[in-house]
Design a protein that fits this description.
Elements (H helix, E strand, L loop, with lengths): L2 E11 L2 E6 L6 E2 L1 E4 L6 H13 L3 E3 L1 H5 L5 E7 L10 E12 L11 E5 L6 H9 L10
Parallel strand pairs: 1-7
Antiparallel strand pairs: 1-2, 1-4, 2-3, 2-8, 5-7, 6-7
């Protein structure tokens, strides 16, 4: 099956994770999208967060020491007639990003901050714990 390489930014602040409302799927998801030509995966995650929310971010310190993503999520994207896309796979490289500024320049998509205690992605929460982000995920 055809596939696309994508990158996502996981922005965590004050025990909350930033999500966007996906315009086609009508679901609350991490911020991310397709990687542009000549762009590093983490650069794409940072760019996508800015384009979708207006927040300026950078890689969390953990990524500086460990030059790989926190997670790689592989999932099927259903056929979308509106975008003329057939069913395909996304290979999503996930990075933890820190806010550089809390003020927003603009916002392309609707956003919300979700309490980590209410977050449903157990796989990602376990991955965060494994690599030492337990202080971010207290009360889980």
């Amino acid at each position: 099956m055809d596939g696309h390489i994508t990158a996502s930014g996981i922005v965590i602040k004050d025990q909350k994770i930033l999500l966007i409302k996906h315009p086609y799927l009508n679901l609350w998801l991490f911020l991310g999208g397709h990687i542009d030509k000549d762009e590093q995966h983490f650069e794409s995650a940072i760019r996508e967060v800015f384009e979708e929310t207006g927040y300026r971010t950078s890689l969390a310190d953990w990524h500086i020491e460990n030059s790989f993503p926190i997670d790689i999520d592989i999932h099927t994207i259903e056929k979308n007639s509106k975008k003329n896309e057939k069913e395909h796979m996304h290979y999503d490289f996930r990075y933890i990003l820190k806010l550089e500024k809390t003020d927003r320049v603009s916002a392309e998509l609707e956003t919300k901050w979700v309490e980590i205690k209410d977050f449903s992605d157990k796989k990602l929460l376990n991955k965060l714990k494994e690599v030492g982000f337990s202080e971010w995920i207290k009360n889980r």
